[in-house]
Amino acid sequence: MGRQRGGAEPAAAGARPLRRDAELNRRRILQAGREVFAARGLQATLNDVAHHAGLGVGTVYRKYPDKQALAEAVFGEELDEIAAMAQEARAEDDAFAALAGFLERALARAAHNRGLRELMRHGIIEGAGPARARQEITLHCEHLLARARTQGALRDGVTEADIAPIAAMIDAVMALPAEHPSELWRRYLVILLDGLRAHPHQAPLPSLGGAD
After folding, report:
1. How confident is the model at residue 17 (pLDDT cuts 50, 70, 90)?
2. How far apart are CA 59 and CA 202, in angstroms?
3. Going by CATH, does the domain composed of 67-199 fall within 1.10.357.10?
4. End-to-end C-alpha distance for the chain, whole angstroms
């Protein structure tokens, strides 16, 4: 029995470095995925990610069987971080300023992340992680809008359903050719946000369906 115990200890000790190596590889793959998808968009391949990570393609496929699985993990993390921004905004006293600040921070992140913008535009990456984070972002935005409405800072008729189209309009501005295309969007975000503010004598907004 003594030999069995003596033989088991090196195996157990060897298992820990293997687990650490596996976790390090997983983090390398995720970080490489974030960088590659940000630079090249969702057309990037697992081979591209493996090359960027400095790992064999087989190592990547053992962790993530296809690009969809890796993209779900990458954008689950990305959207979790954006949800954390929205949650932080809820702590501010001025709800409209908090909403505006959150939108600016989230869109600034998207301005330098082609994959995130494609995800916003097409919504083609699903999975439990991204879906949960999207729901959390929506709930935080609903809370901020409700508070801004209570504080009298929000234009009548504005709802949480307006946020995604606003983000889409800014995404379209980001795609325009310009000397500094990644910064031009800030001008138009200010204009759009000003349209959300409560002002005296504003005309009623048309309904979301376009009918009176």
Report:
1. low
2. 59
3. yes
4. 85
Instruction: Centre a 10 Å sphere on the Cβ of residue 129 and count the other Cβ atoms it contains.
Output: 18
CA distance 62 to 75: 19
Query: CA 86, 92, 94 angle in degrees (round to 5)?
Result: 110
**Contact in structure between 151 and 95 (CB atoms under 8 Å):** yes
Q: Is the pLDDT of residue 58 over 90?
A: yes
Token pair for 174: 């980001």
For the chain, the structural domain boundaries read 10-65, 67-199
- For 10-65, give the CATH class: mainly alpha
- What are the DSSP E strand ranges found in the chain? none
Mean confidence (pLDDT) of the chain: 87
C-alpha span between 83 and 132 (Å, rounded) = 10
